[in-house]
Amino acid sequence: MENKHITIFHGPQHPGITGNMSVELDLIGETIQKATTHVGYLHRGFEKLIERRTVIQAFTIVCRICVPEPDPNEANFAMAVEELAGLEVTPRAQYIRVMVLELSRLAAQFLWMAGQSGSIGLYAVGQWAIADRDLILDLFEELTGARVYHMYIYPGGVRRDLPEGFLERVSTLLVYMKKRLKDYDDIFINNASFKNRAIGVGVISKEEAIANGYVGQVLRGCGIKADVRKDAPYLVYDELEFEVPTQTAGDVYARALVRRDEMDQSIHILEQVVAQMPDGEVMIKMPTHRKFKLAKDDTWVKVESARGEFAYYMAGDGSEKIRRMQVRGPSLVHAYTLLEDLLVGAELSDVALIMNSLGICPPEIER
Amino acid sequence: MGMMMFQKIKSHFATDDVEVKRNDLYKVGIRRDRLVELIHMLRDEYGFKTLNAITCTDWIEEGHFALTYMFTTLDRKHTFMIQTMVNRENTQIKTFSHEFKQAQIMERDLHEMYGINFIGNENLKELSLENWVHTPPLRREFDTLEFVNNNLTFREGRDDNVDTKAESKRLRVLKKAKKDADKKEAAKKAKEEAEAQKSKEEEVKDGE
Amino acid sequence: MKWSVDLKGTLSPLSILTAFWQKPNTIAYPTVKKETAKGYRGFHTNFLENCIGCANCQDVCMNDAIDMIKTDKEYNTKNASQCIPRIDYGRCCWCSLCTDVCPPDSLKLEDDYLNVTKYASDFLYMPKNKE
């Protein structure tokens, strides 16, 4: 019979996709023969906007590059400017930055859980995850003045000191989270229907993962222990103790188990930070009108976000403006090189499942 | 790792432009005709097997682009930045997408934003912009303010903005002029009163 | 396809039924309102007795959202230009850099965030005159 080939457009509005992105699929029956990714719905032109602005004006728009998890962007920007302008950050500010980054990682993993369970149809888990993430956003509202786009990690320190009683509220929340995550084990991670859908789907081999530059849970699900916090430590991660969880199967279920273990490790790190918080100033003395002068040099900084290694390239030219800032997020290679290979031979109903487990975030592909 | 590798690079490629930025980041500047040789040497002998990113900076006043390739080792503890200069007009450079699969999407992004042609790349179609016919946007000669003023209209209602420096100067000058005028007025009045007083005294004297 | 029985995996999700006896997470808005935290970045306020019209806020704003316009009467004799800021909320991103660079500390952000209007011209907002 002719007319066996169908081409459909999967997206850009689809409940399984964390963002606005579409995949064009060629099908025979329900099996995929070829997949092509299309982005371009969210291009805002950040790298060109920064050319006309001074450093402190550029700091306010950098957090909007990645929507589910804005804080690694601010931390990268601050670290790059501090290297090019020669600034030193106080210890208390470094501990507060670690606390903000780990809380943001917990919130992003809850959002992942909502997306992954929604792609199979377990919507109750998604509602619970969004409600628990809201408790973390309440803490951010008190600390920084906004719930999602914090604009808190300044080049030179952090913007405000901790409010009164903040560390007690963080400890109370951590006690609640440890108890609550056991409920999620019962209804989601050990759920037989999730296991039946997820085991053996979307398998990635170890050699391919290393050669093609994949990052994050894609590597850790294949058995490679790779984490920027251990390999090239930044801030005060070399003084804190934690582990890097790995699995060996390389499929969707292995990546889900890795993420669940990382949530436990984040809570462990936060307990240590709350216990060891030093005293002191949180911000260095600012230049007048906050105009920083950058050296004529370039640098490459990286941070471990909830989805993988996030890196920035920044070049200055001796003036108050930034010459070039390029963003290398984890999703650029995952959405094109990995996804187009992985979807060949998969079923149509597994597309949303695989995309959620890779952690693809379209805003950082096209900035 | 460190010293032996740098010695070999300096002697073999006749360059002095090798730098250690942090304990996990190195940088070398190389001429573009020996770029492929250097990348192969670092990959085969020293383990820099993963291509992380390709970035480009526009130095318009010096007349070239600075293309940088970032390579990482297997254990991800060290990164090497390999930088080469290419010309700005009609840039042609050979692609790396046959040896490193992820280079294809990175080169497609740079082609759209800077207009660099990567010879041998199979897919250089548009990525984020649609039906764009003007100059590639990230080049420095593309002025966004001028583009916006020519092609888009602004909403009304914000015409009453005042330049505060000019306004405070104007008010200061007005105030000084008023003060001078008042002083002159006061001096004139005092003189008139003095004259009136004097003529009154003379009248009284005459009357006596 | 395997047909093995996973007893633990089939029965443990039933613990979700305990949610029937728990307190709900949602609040009954608009009869019950959530308390906003202190220090929330909401609308602007400007104490006109202290504002000196220096236009630092206009220089640092990265979206060109602030206009300096003439006052109707003299609030502060030290105001050299007799101009006060007005903010275009179509462009403002609430980063509060303008409050950081204000020398007499008269421009601040309060914790009110709700404003409903029919007209787009209401986006040109004159900050309230209070401490």
Protein traits:
heterotrimer; A: 367 residues; alpha+beta; Cytochrome-c3 Hydrogenase, chain B; three-stranded antiparallel sheet; 14 helices; 8 strands; 47% helix; 13% strand; globular; C: 131 residues; Alpha-Beta Plaits; two-stranded antiparallel sheet; 3 helices; 15% strand
Choose one word for the global shape of chain C.
elongated
Low-pLDDT segments of chain C:
none
What is the fold-level CATH name, i.e. the topology of chain A? Cytochrome-c3 Hydrogenase, chain B
Kindly provide the radius of gyration of chain A, computed on alpha-carbon positions and rounded to a whole number of angstroms.
Answer: 21 Å
Major sheet of chain C: order of its strands? 2-3-5
Number of helices of chain A: 14
Which two chains form the greatest contact, residue counts included? A-B, 32 and 40 residues
Structure write-up:
The complex is a heterotrimer of chains A (367), B (208) and C (131). Chain A has helices spanning 46-49, 55-62, 71-85, 91-120, 123-144, 166-189, 192-198, 206-211, 217-220, 228-231, 252-275, 331-342, 351-358, 363-366; strands at residues 5-10, 22-28, 31-38, 153-154, 157-158, 298-305, 308-316, 322-328. With 367 residues, chain A is an alpha+beta fold. Chain A has one domain: Cytochrome-c3 Hydrogenase, chain B, CATH 1.10.645. In chain A, the strands form 3 sheets. Chain A has a 3-stranded antiparallel beta sheet. In chain A, a hairpin with a 2-residue loop joins strand 2 and strand 3 (31-38). In chain A, helix 4 (91-120) runs antiparallel to helix 5 (123-144), helix 5 runs antiparallel to helix 6 and helix 6 packs antiparallel against helix 11. Chain B contains 5 helices and 7 strands. Chain C has a domain at 44-125: Alpha-Beta Plaits. Helices cover 11% and strands 15% of the residues of chain C. Chain C has a 3-stranded antiparallel beta sheet, with no helix packed on it. Chain C has 131 residues and is of the alpha+beta class. The A-B interface holds A 39-40, 43, 45, 47-49, 51-52, 210-213, 226, 228, 231-232, 298-300, 311, 313, 315, 323-324, 326, 328, 332-333, 336-337, 366 and B 21, 24-25, 49-53, 55-58, 66, 68, 70, 74-77, 79, 81, 100-102, 104-106, 109, 113, 126-130, 137-138, 140, 142, 144-145.
Outline:
The complex is a heterotrimer of chains A (367), B (208) and C (131). With 208 residues, chain B is of the alpha/beta class.
